[in-house]
Amino acid sequence: MSQPLSSRATISAEPLGLTNGWSIETAASLAGVLLAVWTNDTAVDDDPGVTANLTLRGSADTLMGMDALAGFQQELNVSQAAGRLVVDDLVLRDYPILLRLIGWGS
Questions:
Q1: Which residues pair with 25 in a beta bridge?
Q2: Taking a C-beta distance cutoff of 8 angstroms, is the pair 86, 53 a contact?
Q3: Which pLDDT score is estimated for 29?
Q4: For residue 90, with 0-12 CB atoms within 10 Å meaning exposed, 13-18 middle and 19 or more buried, which class applies?
Q5: Quick one: how far is CA 87 from the chain centroid?
Q6: Of the four listed, 20, 58, 81, 100, which is most buried by Cβ atoms within 10 Å?
Q7: End-to-end Cα distance, the chain
Q8: Contact of 45 with 95, CB cutoff 8 Å
Q9: How many CB atoms lie within 10 A of CB 23?
Q10: What pLDDT tens digit does each residue of the chain (106 aa) get?
Q11: What's the gap between Cα 86 and its chain centre?
Q12: Dihedrals φ, ψ of 75, to 5°?
C-alpha cells in the first residue's frame, strides 16, 4: 500500500519558462519511491515540455524516469552532493512523468 511522503520529502524545482508552476506527488511502495511531476499548464497536443532542475533531499541508488503516455522508461543521469540528489534538465510536460527512486534515503 502506498503512503504519502510529504512530511519526509523536501522537493524543489527551478522551472525555466513555466507559466503556471509545476506539481509533484509522492508515494512509497515496495517498488521504491514514486514521484509524479508535471507542469500546471493547459494540456495541448504534442506538448514540447519545459526544462527544469529537480533537487531532492537524500540519495538513491537508481532513478528511473517513466513516461506512461509515450510508453517508455529510462535511467536518468543524476548527481549527488551535500545530501541532495539533483536531476538537471528534466523535461516536464502537461501530464505526469513518473520518477522511481530505488534505494532512496533521507
A1: 36
A2: yes
A3: 58
A4: buried
A5: 9
A6: 100
A7: 20
A8: no
A9: 13
A10: 444 554 344 445 555 554 455 555 555 555 677 888 888 778 888 888 888 888 888 888 888 999 888 888 999 989 988 888 888 888 888 888 888 888 877 6
A11: 10
A12: -75, 135
Reading the block at residue 21, the C-alpha cell is 508552476
Grid coordinates standing for 102?
A: 530505488
**Opening angle at CA 100, ends 95 and 102, nearest 5:** 175
What does the DSSP 8-state code read for residue 17? S
Distance of CA 84 to the CA centre of its chain: 14
Judged by phi (left if over 0) then psi (alpha if -120 to 50, else beta), residue 24 lies in beta
What's the predicted TM-score (pTM) here? Answer: 0.71
The answer for 83, left when phi > 0, alpha when psi is -120 to 50, beta otherwise, is left
